[in-house]
Write a structure and sequence with these properties.
Two copies of one chain form a homodimer. By secondary structure, the first copy, chain A, is α/β, with parallel strands linked by helices. Chain A has 21 helices and seven strands. The first copy, chain A, has three domains: 111 residues, Alpha Horseshoe (MgtE N-terminal fold); 111 residues, CBS-domain, CATH 3.10.580; 181 residues, SLC41 divalent cation transporters, integral membrane domain (Tetracycline Repressor, domain 2, Orthogonal Bundle), CATH 1.10.357.20. In chain A, the strands form two sheets. The first copy, chain A, has a four-stranded mixed sheet with strand order 1-2-3-4.
Chain lengths: 441, 441
């Protein structure tokens, strides 16, 4: 278990020194600005910098707002290049320029690295990577390699896999640090070398990057340019964050909202603004469903019991559609790509829809007959529910792949848009079946 | 990018030898049983074993079904203990016993390790951990530590962090392999040691384990017993799998289904069976909503235009509720625990509900007045939609924490159960508002 959260600042310097930056960040959330200043003064430079990374964007902004560009540059200088680029990227543009200038005067190389990283879009391999790369050449021996790595000992914290390059500097594989450390000093690298099986270019989308980590069970991924020269490396902890981000994105899309909500949890007005667009589309869509009912008002007035089943039809249409969409949505999200099997998926969902719609239709039909004492009503709702559920399953199963081909996130297919469409089609089917059955009596 | 998939078996021995087991598993899915046998005969023992881990459960079963317990024992012997336990755990009980006996005759220690791991529930820290632990004592020097680790060189593949124990064998911290390898041989471990900030006991739930990895950005987590003795370690790649599993579980629960669907993707009958329970509850719930309409049939017959807005009320109630539930569901799922702030959450969602319900109510009211030429209808739907959306937001915001306290997955709160409850309450509000406004005219 992690250490208990301390909510009053009765912790001494030593305790704070041994705490993980993530726990200090928790402590930060429950203390006052005065206590923040005290904590910052106790921490050493490295911990202070790490703390920055673990704070909420908002608290980070507050904390950095109190500091000069030179002080920010000093703090950020302790970070790995990707974290440094992320922290600087959040600052206002003028402050960014001043902080980068301050870094440049101390360490021109670092400033260049950070600038290069800031140029990559945040949601690509380039945006995730860090510029620190521990690499050795294929021709070396174990002891030569270790000697070379000692030169960049500052970056040893994440040196679990060492990249190996050929004479042209091309990335050709990895050596595990443990194999290197335990090898005989004169062993050639070739003996403990593992040829590369995967790398990415900087423009690759972060979702694809996350899927590669999951597929190959790796903890480091090399980022290369077109000539297989190493640009940087992506560490698995940054990928865990991507994973959490993508899960948030999908979940909010499924309810017709956006993961931006998480940033505005304290602002109901912003939340309303984020949620309204889909709700308004849904409002219009469901009014169209209402219009469909209105068209059949004659039938409804003559047989008012039929309105009893309007909520059943819309609820079941929506739910069945979302269920049928979900398998495809999850397959896409997890990289279990089934592009080739859209038709198989459609076939399966149609049959599942029939298996589901059958019993539900019969059950509702029998229930309606007993309730209203009219087998006409029972027949109408049984046929309608069966048809509606089968059709909704088909629509739900097609929506994710259609959205995907249009470049829209398939997760939307479980959301209000498809649900509303299914409501509309469901009510149309219900009214048509009712009119048909009643007119043929 | 990963190497292209080869769909015909035109690959030579050498190519296969350098392929990652995950890619060979892909290849397996697209080849015939005869080709499978060929591939297996080409691979070396270690790759063959690794391939097992990357295959689908179904293909693994087919592959192992052809082999004797002794052959399975030999294959599994190449795996890390957690993978071995998982593979054996999937076999039939009689085969399990025979395979374990075969392992025992070769290596009694390994058999004991695997048996111990198989006793832990799969979804706990114990179920995730492997028994291989590289550990050294705090008093050693770097060169002594490396010497000690050479004895367990077989397990070097995942030796990124070395656990450090005190004289009583208690887990007290870690040393990074890179720091150890690059340290001066006579350096005491104390110099490169990092005191422990987290560990878990074997019974801890896998979701909590995954959250610890995300919180602390770690790649290895120590599993200890009550006396802080090391039992095993959990690696981040196994946690990525947990993450994917939990995401699947939540997603399917949100549509009133179950992640078991993924195992039965080719069996529509099973799919229907998995989806039906919630649909039937939903069927009854939405019939209750219909019954509510039926109670007010007098009002509806006299003012048939009111039925136009039934689908609007139910659709908006459901969507708003799911949106309000989602923030809490995601906070819980990602370990952004907000138990203390249920009331703050409720307050915020109520206000958001008002901000959303206001414009939607006014819009629908104006639209209804223009459409049906009756400001009574406009007034009724405006008041109703406003109330319904606000109340649904409140219910949606409370449901996840109520479910959680009852020991139910909060993800269900975005599913059909709450949606159906909101439909029912929504229609009740609509009809009561209609009856009240109409009777006061």
């Amino acid at each position: 278990m992690s250490e208990d959260e301390t909510t009053s600042l009765s912790i001494d310097t030593q305790t704070l020194g041994t705490m993980h930056a993530a726990d200090i960040a928790d402590l930060f959330e429950h203390t006052t600005p005065t206590e923040h200043a005290l904590i910052m003064s106790i921490l050493d430079a490295e911990k202070r910098a790490e703390l920055l990374v673990y704070l909420d964007a908002r608290e980070r902004r507050d904390l950095l707002g109190l500091r000069s560009p030179a002080q920010i540059a000093e703090l950020v200088g302790e970070l790995e290049s990707d974290d440094a680029a992320d922290v600087i990227g959040e600052l206002e543009e003028q402050t960014q320029i001043r902080v980068l200038a301050a870094i440049e005067s101390e360490d021109p190389n670092e400033a260049q690295e950070v600038r290069a990283l800031m140029d990559y879009p945040a949601d690509t391999a380039g945006g995730l990577m860090q510029a620190e790369i521990a690499s050795i050449t294929f021709g070396a021996t174990a002891s030569e390699a270790l000697e070379a790595l000692r030169a960049s000992q500052d970056d040893a914290d994440s040196m679990h896999f060492i990249f190996v390059t050929d004479q042209q500097g091309r990335f050709i594989g990895v050596v595990r640090m443990a194999r290197l450390a335990l090898a005989h000093p004169n062993s050639p690298i070739a003996e403990i070398f593992e040829p590369k099986f995967v790398d990415v270019q900087a423009h690759v989308d972060q979702e694809e990057v996350a899927q590669l980590f999951a597929k190959y069970d790796i903890i480091t991924l090399a980022v290369v340019d077109k000539n297989e020269q190493l640009l940087g490396r992506i560490m698995v902890d940054d990928v865990l964050e991507v994973w959490a981000q993508e899960a948030d994105e999908d979940a909010f899309r499924m309810v017709g909202s956006d993961a931006d909500e998480l940033q505005y949890q304290h602002n109901p007005f912003r939340l309303a603004f984020i949620r309204l667009p889909w709700l308004l589309i849904n409002l219009v869509g469901s009014a169209a469903t209402g219009w469909m009912l209105y068209l059949f008002q004659g039938t409804l007035i003559d047989h008012i019991v039929l309105i009893t089943f309007v909520p059943v039809i819309t609820a079941m249409a929506g739910n069945v559609g979302a269920q049928s969409a979900m398998i495809m949505i999850r397959n896409y999200a997890a990289g279990r790509d089934q592009e080739r099997s859209v038709w198989r998926h459609l076939g399966r969902e149609s049959i599942t829809g029939i298996f589901i719609g059958g019993p539900c239709g019969i059950l509702l039909g029998v229930g309606a007959t007993l309730w209203h004492g009219s087998w006409h009503v029972g027949l109408i709702v049984a046929i309608s529910l069966f048809l509606v559920m089968t059709v909704s399953a088909i629509i739900g199963s097609l929506a994710p792949s259609i959205f995907r081909r249009l470049g829209i996130d398939p997760a939307i297919a479980a959301g209000p848009f498809v649900t509303t469409a299914n409501d509309l089609i469901g009510i149309a089917i219900y009214m048509l079946v009712a009119a048909t059955v009643l007119s043929s009596l």
